[in-house]
From TrEMBL:
It comes from Prevotella lacticifex. The lineage of its organism: Bacteria, Pseudomonadati, Bacteroidota, Bacteroidia, Bacteroidales. It is found in: Cell membrane; Membrane. The chain holds residues 292 to 582 of 643 of the full protein. It comes from the Bacteria. Signal peptide: none annotated. This is P-type Zn(2+) transporter. Belongs to the cation transport ATPase (P-type) (TC 3.A.3) family. Type IB subfamily.
Length: 291
């Protein structure tokens, strides 16, 4: 049974915009020693801005137009940025058979032409050669590649920003005795390394698929300090499975998908990672009172 004071803890958390879905999570939250984060939308804002468009065969407008049409069916933060660049939807485009390839991109037919939009990994798996991107090497920024009917068509460079409270979140978690912070991301190595360094996170792994994230969390669950817990924090886009696998799953409620909010045990309503620090403090106070 759950002590009554735990419900006071839930009330306290809700007043700072943290929704805790049950009294038993107070105990789990109080004992976190390993905190694992997703990157995009969790430690970064997930609000991408288009910085550059490059194509030898298409005009910028035409390339963005094709991309926006397939991205309108994706709920990935990258998709929101790319469909927003398309202003005039009053055209007679026929968009069919759009499907998302988790951790890679999205693909569909626009007026009968197959449009593939995604990262380098996705292009490789489709057997498409990236023929015109010298600046992709070592470049820090997200490069979204486009192919039409299996032929490389160009790329769009987009940039995200680190949430301003992310570095302080990591520092404060350390001060609270969280002994390991880890970032797991589907994004490229150079971006992951740059983000991890700027935020001050202990460990990171890049270019992961949703299943790889689950494997890392399972490994971390085995090596965590005895009697302590592991939390995963994500926006739920491609990480609902890992949210469920952690001792406690924390989701960003603003940018987060409905599936994530459903799968999570704790929801941060305004997407501020620093709220996790306050929630742990509330949980520990609640546990002390209950004893
Ligand atoms: P993260 O783990 O950082 O949240 P994801 O696993 O959600 O990243 O996505 C990994 C990568 O897959 C992205 O960095 C991007 O390159 C590519 N990707 C995923 N979804 C899309 C999409 N809808 N459009 C274009 N690229 C995408
Ligand atoms: Mg994500």
């Amino acid at each position: 049974s759950v002590p009554l004071t735990f419900f006071a803890g839930i009330g306290g958390a809700s007043r700072i915009g943290v929704l805790v879905k049950g009294g038993n999570y107070m105990d789990v939250l109080a004992k976190v020693s390993t905190m694992v984060f997703d990157k995009t939308g969790t430690l970064t804002r997930g609000l991408f801005v288009v910085e550059d468009v490059h194509s030898e065969k298409y005009s910028f407008g035409d390339l963005l137009h094709l991309v926006a049409h397939v991205e309108q069916y994706s709920n990935h933060p990258i998709a929101s940025a790319l469909r927003n660049v398309k202003r005039d939807w009053h055209d007679d485009c026929r968009v069919e058979n759009v499907h998302e390839i988790a951790g890679n991109g999205v693909e569909g037919y626009v007026n009968g032409r197959k449009v593939s939009v995604g990262n380098e990994k996705m292009m490789k798996s489709l057997g498409i050669t990236i023929s015109e991107c010298p600046r992709c090497r070592g470049f820090i920024g997200t490069v979204v590649h486009v192919a039409v009917d299996g032929v490389y068509a160009g790329h769009i460079v987009i940039a995200d920003q680190i949430k301003d409270d992310a570095p302080k979140t990591i520092r404060d978690l350390k001060a609270l005795g969280v002994d390991k912070t880890v970032m797991l991301t589907g994004d490229r190595e150079v971006i992951a390394a740059d983000t991890a360094r700027k935020i001050g996170i202990d460990e990171y792994h890049s270019e992961l698929l949703p299943a790889d994230k689950v494997r890392y969390v399972e490994e971390l669950l085995k090596t965590k300090t005895k009697g302590r817990t592991l939390a995963f924090v994500g926006d739920g886009i491609n990480d609902a499975p890992v949210l469920a696998r952690a001792d406690i799953g924390i989701a960003m409620g603003g940018v987060g998908s409905d599936a994530a909010i459903e799968a999570a045990d704790v929801v941060i309503m305004n997407d501020r990672p620093l709220k996790i620090v306050r929630a742990i403090k509330i949980a520990r106070r609640t546990i002390r009172i209950a004893r």
